[in-house]
Design goal:
89 residues
Length: 89
Amino acid sequence: MRALGIVMGLRAAYGAFESGERDPSALARVAHAEVAPRFDRIDYLTVRHTETLAALDGPVQDRAVLVVAAHLGKTRLIDNLVLGEEPMP
């Protein structure tokens, strides 16, 4: 199922984070590689500050949130994962 692409992207970013990746752009790219081929359009897929949702200007320290919104046809799916806090989806 194509809709599982978001979960696959969250899992991939989770794995990269657990393996030591802390660059927000790299974490987003890992997730994007799983999401993009399965969805018609991505509104956003980014790693942000957990409290403010502000863009991160450096490496992830303790935790960050990965947020995703993507379309399958007319349906918009959204999900998120707090890296460094939540278990693997």
